[in-house]
Structures are given as C-alpha cells and as structure tokens.
What we know:
Two copies of one chain form a homodimer.
Chain A (H helix, E strand, L loop, with lengths): L3 H14 L18 H20 L3 H12 L9 H13 L15 H9 L3 H10 L26 H7 L3 H6 L6 H6 L4 H12 L4 H15 L3 H7 L1 H15 L5 H11 L4 H16 L5
Amino acid sequence: MRTPAENAQLALLCEVTATPKPGNVDRAREYPDLRFEHFMAGVVGASEGLRMAAAGDPIGRAFERAIEGMADQRGGNTQFGALLLLVPLVRATSDEDESSASSEELTPKRAAHVAAATTVADATAFYRAFEHVDVAVDDPPTDMEALDVRRGADAVPAIEARELTLYDVFERSVDRDGVAREWVSGFPRTFAAADRIAALDGPVPDRAARVFLELLADEPDTFVVTNHGEATAREVSADAQVALDGDLDPDALADDLVERGINPGTTADLVAAGLFVALERGLDV
Amino acid sequence: MRTPAENAQLALLCEVTATPKPGNVDRAREYPDLRFEHFMAGVVGASEGLRMAAAGDPIGRAFERAIEGMADQRGGNTQFGALLLLVPLVRATSDEDESSASSEELTPKRAAHVAAATTVADATAFYRAFEHVDVAVDDPPTDMEALDVRRGADAVPAIEARELTLYDVFERSVDRDGVAREWVSGFPRTFAAADRIAALDGPVPDRAARVFLELLADEPDTFVVTNHGEATAREVSADAQVALDGDLDPDALADDLVERGINPGTTADLVAAGLFVALERGLDV
C-alpha cells in the first residue's frame, strides 16, 4: 500500500541501513560530522519533493524541493545523488507516455522518457538546488565553466541562453558522473541492481550491501574519482572484487575506507535507486 | 522547516537508531523476526496517518490509518504504542483550544485538551486499529471483558452502548498501561523526557539512549509487566539504575535482555514521544 514517494523514502532508509557498505555511512559506521541520523533527517526532509515528483510537478522543481528539505540537518549533503536518481524514477511511475500509458510498470523505457522530456526550467531548478547544500563535484571542462554547477543560480542565464534542458546538462557530464550516465541511458545500472536485489535472499539491507559491493567491483565510483582521482577509484573497485571473492573481509575494507575518508557515494546512490525499483516491483521488507 | 508529521517520523527514526536501548531493537541489535528495517518501513507507512492527525482529522481515524500503514511490513507490531502517543501530540500542534489559540507552542495543556476532547468514534477507530496488527496486551479485568482490545471491531457495539470516548477507554487502563497513563495526565513523562533530551549534549540518538535508561530506571515498563510480570519489570528497572550508576555496561544489559526476549517497549514509546516534543521545540539533528 506504500505510494511511490513512500517507497523512495524506504529505499533511502534501507540503503543507509545496509552494512557493511565500504566507505559509506551505514548503521555500523559514520563520520564525526556526517552521522547516521543526518541521513534519517535527510529522508524525512526529502518527502515533500518526492511527493511533488509523483504528483506530476516539474522534475526540476520537485528535485530542488527534495534537496531543500534534505539539507535541513547538520550533516550537509546526505542524499543529493540518490535523490537525483529517485526523482525521475518516482515520476516515471505516474508518467503518461503515449506508448506506455496502458502499463503501470516501472520500466527503463518509461524512465528514459521522463529524462528525455525535461525542460530548460528543469535545468535551472537543478542548478538552484546547489544553493541549498555543498556537493563535491569535479571542475568542468574549460568550455563549460559558465555551466559549473557550483555557480548555482548564477549559472541560470547561461543555461537559458544556450537553451539547455536537464537532459542536455547530463549529456555534457557523462564522462565524469555516474548519475548523469544513468539519466541519459535509461538507468541501466539502476535496473540491473533492482534485478539483483530481487533475486537475492535474506533481509533487504543485507541484499543491498551485497549489491553495493558488486556495483563497486564492476565500475570505478565517479564520486571517488572526483575526490581522490582515477587511480584510487580503480584500486577501491579492485578491493571490492577481492571482497566479493572472499579474500578480504568487507568489514575490514569498510573500516579502511572510512579511515581514509574514501566514500563511494555514487555507488550508494545506485543502490538506493535499485532498491526503489525493486520495492515498486513488489519486494517485501 | 519540517512539519509536525515529519518531526514525528524523525522522532521514530531517531528512537530506533538510538543504541544501546536495552531489550529493544536498535541500530546494533535486533530479533530474528523483528529487524531494524521493519521499523524503517513502519515509520514510512505511518506517515499518511500522521499527516491526517496534523490536518485535524479525527484522532481515532488518523491513528487507525497510521497503524494500517505501519503494519505493511513483515515484522508485525513495530510502533503501535509510540504512534498512540504521537498522534495526539501531532494533533496538539495545530489544535485550536480557545484558551491557548494564541500560542503555537506544544504544551502539556494542549496535549491534555486533545486527549479530553476525544469521542466515541475515536474509541471505535482505536479498536479497529487492532485488526491491522497483533499487539501484546494484558487480560482486562473481569467486568471489562467486552472491551478487550483484542476483540478489535467486535468490541465496537459495547463501546457504543456504553458511550465510551477514547479518553474513557484509557482511564480504565491506567493501572496496566504506561501509554494510557500519559493520555489521561497531560503526558508528564513525555514532556519530562523532551526536557532531558534538550538539556543533554551530543548526537540526538545518544541522548535518546541515555533518557531511555533514565525512564526505565524511574518506573517499571508496563509492556514488560504484561509479557513477563511485575517482578521481572522491577528487576529490569533496577538493572537500568545500576547501568546509570556506572556499575553495569548498558551494552551488556542490552545483550542480556535481547537474549531473554525482554523488551521494554513502553519506555521506547515514551522516548519517541519525548524526541518529537523536543524536535517541535527546536532540537537540531
């Protein structure tokens, strides 16, 4: 009986609960200034924006509202990337694409349609969301400096002058951002994560922790690339594979990465999005 | 910027996060069939009922809706008692009592007014809530058998024949139920817990864990009385005092009580309610 907005909240809560999720805050590990309860408050604060997404409000406005609410706690950025994946997916559950109006199911096609249908106004609202919270991002390429997300609302005139939709913005970031890659390609890793979560046995957070390791082993985390460079990101992915192979205790890897402040946040975002899709498709908690 | 319904959800999340909370599910301990994520799903499911309470819907209907949503997970009863405290407190934040209409503050007086203003329809909705989930309760006194809450909707004719309001129902249960005692006396332990939580330092869940021990040491838990008898409940309270005095590790007490299946649930309900009042009065997370 949960609504899509409620399933999105439960997905975020199960994601942060899942342990060990090496390098990320989970129910057993946290950073001194970024604690478990900050994620709880982030989920509660995001609820109104998630409901706006479900109700058909413009994606950009819904996302900005979700971030504004999420940021009402002392930990800073808790779920920016996860909400950036969840908002279009929540919208896709009620999207009335002509070709799929008869189906209630959440599919990559419906999600891709929502992403492709974004507007310039969605892009400007996305930039405004950066006014509410500090998000670690890479320097943009030289020809993209006017579009640096860290400029927040100051970048709006450049967005409008170039008539860039939110989809267009993400197309320009696929090289450095795993969330943008999902947006422009029908959310393939999200849906693959959902399938894996549904296929595994046991408590949902335990499945989520396993899928986190699988995703991390599969591709370097772009948030780690941003903060620590490509070499470190590749090393972390290799370690995740060793953990999956049973030759490294995932808890030891988790302690090590938290100690070094290496936080594969994009992989966690993908797990949250995968949990949401799985819940929408009937996963029981 | 959180609404009262959102603060109620955050209170429930911070309560279950707080550790150690001897005998109860927390972020470090759970029972095989009652896990941490069941509490997360319970909070998400309760949100619509909490919003109904804030919007001024009848208390009984709001509570029944909260329980119906809470029960949409596999763990069974997660937050029945906590929601029974939270629903009138959420309502009190928007209640327009003549004598206090000018104040926005959540006070014992406003909460007492909400409780006193309940109707027979609130009582019948409360009984219907028991249809959604199994709740451990004591046998009623012989002259109250027709009003046994375990009869659920079957007890409604008896409620209506006797014209009992929800307040009247709780007046008849004060001897055996710590939640009922709060309802009929202006929520004194709830507001005292809120004051303690606000006065302590450190992360909010750590404060909640401390106040849990203080409340438990202060009075035997009525849920433990129901399930294990008065003597065990007194022994648990004595152990909580020893832990507060520093002569027993609270984590060891937590492990011991979980092992024995002794769950001071009413004390946890009071902590959740106290967290809500503290959040409404400006506690930062």
